Amino acid sequence: MERRVSITDLKAMKKRGERIAMLTAYDYPSARMVEEAGVPIILVGDSLGMVVLGYDSTIPVTMDEMLHHVKAVVRGTRRAHVVADMPFMSYQAGPQDALRNAGRMLKEGGAQSVKLEGGQRTAEAVRLLVASGIPVMGHLGLTPQSVNQIGGYKVQGKTPAAAVKLVNDAVTLAEAGVYAIVLETIPAQLAKMVTEKVSVPTIGIGAGPHCDGQVQVFHDMLGLFADFVPKHAKRYARIGEVVVEAVSRYVDEVQEGDFPTDKESFFVDESAFSELTQLG
Ligand code: KIV
Fold this sequence. Notes:
Elements: H1 7-16, E1 20-24, H2 28-36, E2 41-44, H3 48-51, H4 63-75, E3 81-85, H5 95-107, E4 113-115, H6 123-131, E5 136-141, H7 147-150, H8 160-176, E6 180-184, H9 188-197, E7 202-205, E8 213-216, H10 218-221, H11 239-256, H12 270-279
Parallel strand pairs: 1-2, 1-8, 2-3, 3-4, 4-5, 5-6, 6-7, 7-8
Helix pairs in contact: 2-4, 5-6, 8-9
Residues 24, 43, 45-47, 85, 182, 184, 205, 215, 217 line the site of 3-methyl-2-oxobutanoic acid.
C-alpha cells in the first residue's frame, strides 16, 4: 500500500542534503496536480484567505474554512504529506486551544501535521501538541497573522537584534519539537545561519537559496492571482491569462451561435423524435 511522506522522511531529506519542494494547494484538483508533479509536502496555507476567498489578509480565516479546504486536499492526495495551517486565533489564546484545534485538523481534516506562526510565544503550545502526537511545523520571520503588529509585509530580521531573536526563536522551536521551520521574507544570510544552526529542515519563502527547502503559493507561481505578485514569487506559468482568453472565446462563441455544435449535443433517433412531436 502506498504511504504518505512522514516527518521522518522530511528530516532524512535534510540529512541527505536533498532539497524539499513544498507548495500550497487548497482544493481537490490542485492537490492532485501538485502531487502528480512530485511535490512531497503540501501546505494548505491560510493564504487561501487571500488567493481563494478574496480577504485582504489572512486574519479573517476561520477553522471551519481551513477544515473545508484541508479535507479537499487530503481527498486529492495519497502520498504527499499534508500540512494544515492553523488560522489566526486558533492557537494564540493558549496551549489547550491550540491542542483542541490542531486535533481537529488531524482528526476531522485528515492532515498529517499543522503549522503555527511565532517563536518563543508558541513554544509551550508546540510542546503540548508534539507530546500529544501532533507534528508541528514552525513559521518565523514575516508572520502574516501579525501584519497589524509588524506594520506591513516587510522584510524581517534586518537589524542585529532582530536577527539574534530570530535565531533564538528557531532554536527554541527546534527544542520544543517542531519537525521543520518555515522562514518567510528574511535576509538570505540569516536564513543560512538558521539552516546551519538547527537540525530540522528550514523551508524558505523569500529567504534565499540556502534553506533546506522552498515553499511557494500555488496561485503566485502559476499566475492565478493578479492582485499582487510578491518579489519572492517566480511565475512558472501565466494560467490566469490562459483562463481569461479561453472564457472570452466561450462568450464569443455563445453570442455568435458557434457553441454548441452537433458534436456537443444529444439527439434521439428520428423515429423516437416523430413520436415525440406527435405527442406534442
Ligand atoms: O499560508 C501560507 O501559504 C503560508 C506560506 C506562505 C508559508 O504560510
